[in-house]
Amino acid sequence: MNRRQLLKIGVGLLFTTATMSLASRIATAGQEGMSNQTRKMEKLIMSDDEWREKLTPEQFYILREEGTERPFSSALNDEKRDGTYHCAACEQALFLSNMKFDSGTGWPSFFESIDGAFETKTDFKLIYPRKEYHCSRCGGHHGHIFKDGPPPTGKRWCNNGVALKFIPA
């Protein structure tokens, strides 16, 4: 076992303990009255082997190894129906179809996401800093946020299509 694997296990255990503690406090605070729209899904933690069984090799590369699919390779670029875009790994709702726009970049793009759907971090893989976003439920990598989107937010959530599952309305 190398240091990186040991660190992942340690962080996973710490995260699980913290999540269980928070879930316990929320339950005792009377979450029963919350609507389904404001209630977050429970965190989903799985090993790499479990993710490999659940995901295709391309989905594993994108969602678990922070890869990027080829531009213009996703059928979701041309998706125009009403519906909801979900995480392909854990099925958490991420975007509504009215948040989507054609950015011309070759990846499904959105000007906004559903509140609480993502967590962000700074990525320096291309030397300059970029804002990377991950599913708040399973930690799956989806893409990057850029400041060249349309009004009203001016943001472009550039998403890997293979990381999404579209569910028509």
Distance between termini?
46 Å
- The stretches of 5 or more residues where confidence is low (pLDDT under 50) are 13-39
Q: Provide the gyration radius in Å.
A: 17 Å
Q: How confident is the prediction overall: mean pLDDT? A: 83
Could you name the CATH class of the largest domain?
Mainly Beta
**Number of discrete helical segments:** 3
Q: Predict the CATH topology of the largest domain.
A: Metal Binding Protein, Guanine Nucleotide Exchange Factor, Chain A
Number of strands: 9
**CATH architecture descriptor text of the largest domain:** Beta Complex
Summarize the structure.
The chain has helices spanning 3-28, 48-54, 57-65, and strands at 83-87, 93-96, 100-101, 109-110, 118-126, 128-135, 141-146, 156-159, 164-168. The protein is an alpha+beta fold. The protein folds into two domains: 1-31; 64-168, Beta Complex (Metal Binding Protein, Guanine Nucleotide Exchange Factor, Chain A).
Topology at a glance:
Elements: H1 3-28, H2 48-54, H3 57-65, E1 83-87, E2 93-96, E3 100-101, E4 109-110, E5 118-126, E6 128-135, E7 141-146, E8 156-159, E9 164-168
Antiparallel strand pairs: 1-2, 1-9, 3-4, 4-8, 5-6, 6-7, 7-8
Please describe what this structure looks like:
The chain has 169 residues and is of the alpha+beta class. The chain folds into 2 domains: 1-31; 64-168, Peptide methionine sulfoxide reductase (Metal Binding Protein, Guanine Nucleotide Exchange Factor, Chain A, Beta Complex). 25% of the residues lie in helices and 27% in strands. The chain contains 3 helices and 9 strands, in the order αααβββββββββ. A hairpin with a 7-residue loop joins strand 3 (100-101) and strand 4.
